[in-house]
Design a protein that fits this description.
- By secondary structure, the chain is α+β, with helices and mostly antiparallel strands.
- Strand 9 and strand 10 form a beta hairpin.
- The protein is globular, with a radius of gyration of 18 Å.
- It starts with 8 loop residues before the first strand and ends with a helix.
- The mean pLDDT is 95.
- The strands form 3 sheets. Strands 2-3-4-1-5 form a 5-stranded antiparallel sheet. The protein has a 3-stranded antiparallel sheet with strand order 8-10-9.
Length: 245
């Protein structure tokens, strides 16, 4: 791998006095307490609680920066603009910054989902592309992201393992899709989970994505049918803890 830039990511800059209240009413994580150097993974859901867009939030002074899929950036900006109504918030692409990743940059913030994912930060574009290396590393840990893997408007947010990956706050107040998400949590009703299995064992009825280059199939399975020994340790521990409650 050469370089640290994730060329498959883009950044949206949101500025204006109503930005944080706007995002607070829409997203699964608390935006009002978002702090410098402490990014948060979050999502914009459907009213039924299914994932539409997932992304990472950063701060830059009073502005909020969204680290998102490059292929989904314009669609996300359009969706946020629809929710903006008359609020004082400007939503635009930030082309002067890029998302960076490294396993070795210990002076940079850790990925907010899982420390083992490595270090992530925003800076000017540099030569090289770390996208393929990060993708392979992320999937080796059983962490999924983006419309292609999560299934846009197909998978309930908690079924993507969002709670275990710090992608939801239960004490922040209302947001789009909050009712069903909270109900699943408090009733301990996450009956299905998104997992990766070898492509040779793929079940097309449960498949969200076939990753032929990595030999993986991302699928939605009932928890009671999952082989826990085949799961990454962090997810196996979470499912076992849920079953014990």
């Amino acid at each position: 791998m050469t370089g640290t830039t994730l060329t498959d990511r883009a950044i949206l800059r949101l500025s204006g006095e109503d930005v944080r209240p706007l995002l607070q009413s829409l997203l699964t994580r608390d935006v009002l307490t978002l702090a410098e150097g402490k990014p948060r993974w979050t999502a914009l859901l459907t009213p039924q609680g299914k994932a539409l867009f997932d992304f990472i939030l950063w701060t830059d002074g009073d502005d909020v920066l969204i680290d998102c899929e490059a292929t989904q950036a314009d669609a996300l900006a359009k969706r946020l603009t629809l929710y903006r109504l008359r609020r004082k918030a400007v939503i635009a692409r930030e082309d002067d910054l890029a998302v960076h990743w490294s396993l070795e940059a210990t002076d940079r913030p850790l990925d907010p989902r899982l420390p083992a994912l490595g270090h992530r930060w925003l800076a000017r574009v540099t030569d090289g592309d770390a996208s393929a290396a990060f993708r392979a590393h992320r999937l080796s840990l059983g962490v999924f992201e983006g419309a292609g893997e999560l299934g846009q408007d197909q998978t309930l947010w908690l079924e993507t393992n969002a709670e275990e990956l710090h992608g939801v706050d239960y004490d922040k107040g209302c947001y789009v899709g909050q009712e069903n998400t909270a109900r699943m949590h408090y009733r301990n009703k996450v009956n299905r989970r998104l997992i990766a299995v070898p492509l040779a064992q793929a079940d097309e009825k449960r498949q969200r994505a076939a990753l032929t280059d990595l030999g993986l199939s991302i699928e939605l399975h009932r928890v009671d049918s999952i082989d826990h020994d085949a799961l990454p340790a962090w997810l196996a521990t979470a499912i076992e803890g849920q079953a014990a409650e």
